Amino acid sequence: MEPRARTEPGKKPTRNLFESAAFAGNFDTWESALKTAGLTDMLKDKGPYTVFAPTDKAFKALPKGKLDMLLKNKQELAELLRHHIVSGKVMSKDVKSGEFKALDGSNVWIQKTASGIKIENANVVDEEIDSSNGVIHAIDKVLEVGR
């Protein structure tokens, strides 16, 4: 499924992070996982947050049974999802290489290169989605907690 249109340039976004992910059309698994982990309210509050959201394709690439196992363990799932979120709103043009504290309390390494943005072993694969309380960057892999 092709992602739906983003916020028009020059217009202030009206959707929060959770609504933006749902509307985009390529984060159904992320959205479902957030609901299961009880994190939807966090992504609806004022933030701001920068979310590195794995696409549905990234979740499908997990080892067989891993997603089902995570969906059955709410605490581990919530920790994994928080590992994909940092405080503050960082647009692509403002990303600087370095280590950042994720909401799960661990550090994530973000690198800006000539070919794009990497977070740990994942690549940012789609244009950012500006939201009223932050920004979403689509990534091609699910990050591992404790790397």
Explain what you see:
- The chain has 147 residues and is α+β, with helices and mostly antiparallel strands.
- The chain has a single domain (17-139), classed as Roll (FAS1 domain).
- Helix content is 27%, strand content 24%.
- It has helices at 17-24, 28-37, 56-60, 66-72, 74-82; strands at 49-54, 85-87, 98-101, 107-113, 116-119, 122-123, 129-131, 134-139.
- Strands 2-1-8-7 form a four-stranded mixed beta sheet.
- Helix 2 (28-37) crosses helix 5.
- The longest helix has 10 residues, at 28-37.
- The protein is globular and about 40 Å long.
Secondary-structure blueprint:
Elements (H helix, E strand, L loop, with lengths): L16 H8 L3 H10 L11 E6 L1 H5 L5 H7 L1 H9 L2 E3 L10 E4 L5 E7 L2 E4 L2 E2 L5 E3 L2 E6 L8
Parallel strand pairs: 1-8
Antiparallel strand pairs: 1-2, 3-4, 4-5, 5-6, 7-8
Helix pairs in contact: 2-5
